[in-house]
User: What shape does this take?
Amino acid sequence: MAVTISDVAKLAGVNSSTVSRVINGKASITQETKERVYAAMKELDFHPNSLARSLASGLCGAIGVVVDARDAEAFSNFFFSRSLFAIEQVAQEKGYQVIIANGAQSKGRTIESLMKERKVDGLILPPTTVNPSLMEAIGDFPYVVLGTPDTLRGATCWVDNNNEQGSDLAVHHLQEQGYQHIAYLGGNQKRGFTIRRVRGYKKTITGEELIIPTDGTTENAYSTVLEILEKKDRPDAFVCNDNMAAFGLLKACKKLKIRIPSEVGIVAFDNYPLAEYTDPPLTIVDIDTGMLGDQAAQLLFRRIDKRCGNQQIMLSTNLIVRESSERLAK
Amino acid sequence: MAVTISDVAKLAGVNSSTVSRVINGKASITQETKERVYAAMKELDFHPNSLARSLASGLCGAIGVVVDARDAEAFSNFFFSRSLFAIEQVAQEKGYQVIIANGAQSKGRTIESLMKERKVDGLILPPTTVNPSLMEAIGDFPYVVLGTPDTLRGATCWVDNNNEQGSDLAVHHLQEQGYQHIAYLGGNQKRGFTIRRVRGYKKTITGEELIIPTDGTTENAYSTVLEILEKKDRPDAFVCNDNMAAFGLLKACKKLKIRIPSEVGIVAFDNYPLAEYTDPPLTIVDIDTGMLGDQAAQLLFRRIDKRCGNQQIMLSTNLIVRESSERLAK
DNA sequence: ATTAGTTGTGCAAGCGATTGCATGATATTG
DNA sequence: CAATATCATGCAATCGCTTGCACAACTAAT
Assistant: This one.
């Protein structure tokens, strides 16, 4: 058996509750007693059993991050992994563990189990899981949605990048650079963030609207856009829903020997490491997923500590201007 | 307070130990009793407190995945995230949680805490953390290293892709395609897997050896290889340590108008989603990170169930032949 | 010197399950 | 039909820690 708190107590010549108090830095304990306890802990190589602690204290010291990943692709999505890194960092500072769980196959049962079986003190959820029945089950359990839910926007607690504003930034920039006919390329038009980006595009655009959906792959973007570029009245600029679409577009332009940025300008959402190294480098609406994760985790801990209720945090996006859209000399 | 096992027992008119046995499917319980208990559980919306369970049973129902990530980049590394996806899947089937922890800043303290504070029943570790003192601390606690440790290869438990064999595959293929002067491009020459890949390259190569280290970025690979390609006696083929190096190489060839695969052949390790869409598409030594995670998790659970001791599992790699190395007509 | 207020520590009752042992009720066997 | 084995269930200890309450010792105020 492992070393317990009473072993330490015995060795230090005190009661186990005193040891507990020393561990948790509670109440007033004589410096001398403290030192005796610490010495005993060190001598016995004592590590408190976190399960027993949690059971007694009612706090489990873990938060859950739920993903909605049908395949490895979605999971390795760098959006997710960067947020996760940030979340883990915040949790570590707080002395919390991070539990990840894929909720894709389970229709809310993953979330329920994490919560009701007392495995976590709080949850970070993907927007796709939000629905009225889940929210009812959650009750006042601390959670934060990472992204804007499609329903219950006002009644839930979430952190998101401002996708509308991102499109606005992109379109404005392209207009300033003198592009006239700006199209929106890519994205599953059913997903919330795409809808919001398209909405921002529509709101800001002055000329003719053109929305070109894709299935999310580079290949599909390539073939789809190829046709469009061959037309006479082709757009002279594109806002791309993601880097995949942009890569496809780059390839199509290369194929047709269309020069970038002089003939066609490109701005893309998301900042893949590779976006900097394409030819030419891509102008990007930077979605700072690290910050997103950080903010979500901070907010979650505030809720766990009962220091706030539902909140909606919208982070603004930044434009990183690179060659793909710089038609005007600086 | 939450619903407890004794509430259920009371409602079902049985003892709490009976309820416990029903939950755990233990011993022989009358069908009728079982049904009464199930009904009571449903009526009260009972969820067993996993903390109390773990404390009593001695099993925590979680495994830990330790990462060694200094920055978000390393963390979002798709190698890691794909493995993680697979690990989570295996764990979920077993009813286990997955705890992730970044051990980068803590010099083994993360691992020690996870293990000794009874937070997990087993650990999946990165090869970089392996050293004699850690192994001593671990003792016979179940763990699996994901990758080959640089030290203690024979005395630890790990799962890895066969990097040497991967290089062998690559070089052989290039030789078959008639390339004569094959160079090895990229990689931090201090990292274990790079060393093993280079070893495989050296072993299989017949002509002149040429090893070109890079700092891992596309940019560095580009500038480094540009110089080399301008020389007269440049290599006519490259084995790239990773996709980043290959992207840099592609860019350099394009710049110098060197045709691929007729003038220069390329094979690269790792299978980024993008590798299929480059121009030309890259021939790849496929590192199946999903399988790696799957095998590691399976092995870990075997160890947790005490069904095996240290084991070393080496998965062989596959070559995915695409245009970048196909000089001969098929 | 008496009273009141701190302070440091011990006692013991939880937290919510699991599980070995005991027991009474059935089933099996000669 | 007595004796034995098997089955279904209850009792109570246990897992290792936290924490409210009690209390003695000491300080400060009147």
Observations:
- Residues 1-2, 4-6, 16-17, 19-21, 23-24, 26, 48-58 of chain B lie near DNA strand C (CB under 10 Å from a C1').
- Residues 78-93 of chain B form the longest helix (16 residues).
- The first strand of chain B starts at residue 62 and ends at 67.
